Amino acid sequence: MPVATFPLGPLQTNSYIIHLGSQAVAVDVGGDPAPMLEYLSAHDLNLAGICITHRHFDHVYGVAALHEASGAAVYISADDDCLAGTESAQGGMWGFPTVTAFAAQHIAMGKNTLGGMEFEVMATPGHTPGGISLYFPTEKLVFTGDALFYRSIGRTDFPGGDHEALLRSVTQVLFKLPDATQVYPGHGPATVIGDEKRSNPFCGEFQL
Hints:
With 208 residues, the chain is an alpha/beta fold. It has helices at residues 34-42, 63-70, 87-90, 163-172, 193-199, and strands spanning 3-8, 13-20, 23-27, 46-51, 74-76, 105-106, 110-114, 117-123, 132-136, 141-145, 148-149, 152-153, 182-185, 191-192.
């Protein structure tokens, strides 16, 4: 299952396209989705859905444009609805532009299928109240948003952040995945669950 990575927008948010056959799913859209649309066209892919790991502005800047261009439905956790009216979701803070409004459906926790691809939506709150990670068990890969990074974890000083909840999400949810699971985070390089269990400096005291 190919994974294409597009660092987009003012914070170089990792925006992803995963595909199987002629069907594709997008994960987060951090800026102008033109490179994603070019990829979809070049590979003759139909976008079956747009999944958002959390509602922070830097992960949704290009959602409205990608939805308009593709017609794909947008999916997000209901537990992040509390952020919808805040600057952390709408942008405008620190001189960053505002987010173009978009309509979204709530995604259910647990097993889901889009475009023939089966994945598990896992609640990984802490960075935001409704943060989710998307785990594809057949391929052993997970999209963690801003929960888990290479040798780091997400910040928790925005509205709704909870440091201990985030550590629980990482150590009791993400670290329960197979060690060989490839991690595709919201920013920075990819990593592997087993490596983070051994070397992530933020999680040692919470390891089980």
